[in-house]
Structures are given as structure tokens and as C-alpha cells.
Amino acid sequence: MAPTHTSQLLEELVAQAPDGPVDLEWLLSNLDKRSFGLLLLLLGLLVIIPGVATIATLALLFPAVEMMLGRSAPAFPRFVSKRQFDFKRFKRFTVFVRPMLQAIERISRPRWDARRDVIDRLVGLVVFLLAFSAGWPLPLVNVIPGMVVVLIAIAYLQEDGLLLTVAMAAALICLLGLGWTLWASFGAVMSWIGL
Asked: What are the helix (H) ranges across the chain?
């Protein structure tokens, strides 16, 4: 049986959301058995949105570490899980991204060739590095890692090994690009101060 489409899971979650602010504890309580994948999708989208990107980037580190450790479900420290954010902005953003998700889903299908625990740990490691890179205080540096996390989450939820390979390649390019930017910036600063 094919997995439920990611856009449908997202639509169902948004429909359940209250009108006011929500916190990560509410999100976790409303996720289905594929909580890691859907949580990565939600946080990846939030990383892109101005105003909530900082807390979303911090929050993304926790499920990434838990996936690397082989945990079966995500959890957050209380200071992160009780931090509220305005879900209305997220609801508006999902309307914008839904056509993109549906376009990916039309060409995506289950192609899972590796053990689930291996995939979990690999995805966790890559998402951790992307979240770390999204936290650098550079203009718009969060947008591309956030988009790559969303692509990884879709591949993970759709159980599409080919799409996951593409997403991992995009993650590698993203991380190499950030590494080069930081190295060049460091070199420019050292040159400017005469070292």
C-alpha cells in the first residue's frame, strides 16, 4: 500500500490547528506514526519563513540527533517544546507550497532499497548539518537549507529512494557552498586585518 501523500498529511495537520499560537508539543501530539518525516517537513518549512526561522532551526537539531541515535519518535526539551509561534503564517505558507509538493508527488513513488534504520541515521546526520548551516548569521542563509530539508522530508515520507538520493546530493552542494562561503569570508577578514 502506497504511503499517504505528504501534501495530504500537511493539509490534515493544518486543518486540525487552532486559530491562535501553537507550540511544538501540540505538533508532536498531532503527528502520526511517521512523526519524524512530517516533523522534518514542518520544521523545514518553518526554517524558510521569516520571524520563526530561528526557533525552527534550533528545534530541527533535536529530531536530527534523535534520528542519528536510532530513536523511534521525536522529543524536545521543555524550553523548546513550549515555545509558541504564530501558526497562521505557516497556514498561509502551506497554501503557497502545496502546488510544489503535489508536483513532486506526481513523479515520486516508493523506491526504498535500504534498511530503515540506516536511512534514519543518514537523514538525521544530513539534517543536523543543514540545520547547523541554516543557523549562521548571514542574510537568507536559512532559505536553501530549509528547502533541502523539505525535499529530504518528502522523499522520506514518500519512501522514494531516488528522490532521497537527489535530495542528499542537493544537501551536499548546499553544505559545500556554505563551507566555501565561510572559508572565503574568513580569508577576507584575515586579509583585512593583515594576518
From this structure: 6-16, 24-29, 35-48, 53-68, 78-81, 87-107, 116-134, 143-158, 161-192
Residue 165 has φ and ψ, to the nearest 5°, of -60, -45
Q: Which three cell numbers stand for residue 54?
A: 530561528
Q: What cell does 195 get?
A: 594576518
- Spatial CA neighbour of 182 closest among 133, 148, 127: 133
**Rounded to whole angstroms, what are the CA distances from 33 to 3, 30, 36, 67, 74?**
12, 10, 8, 14, 11
pLDDT in tens, 89-109: 777 777 777 888 888 878 877
Q: What is the mean pLDDT of residues 1-26?
A: 73
| Distance, CA of 156 to CA of 150 (rounded, Å) | 10
Averaged confidence pLDDT in the chain: 79
Check the CA dihedral 167-168-172-178 and report its sign: positive
Grid cell in block for residue 111: 523506491
pTM beyond 0.90: the answer is no
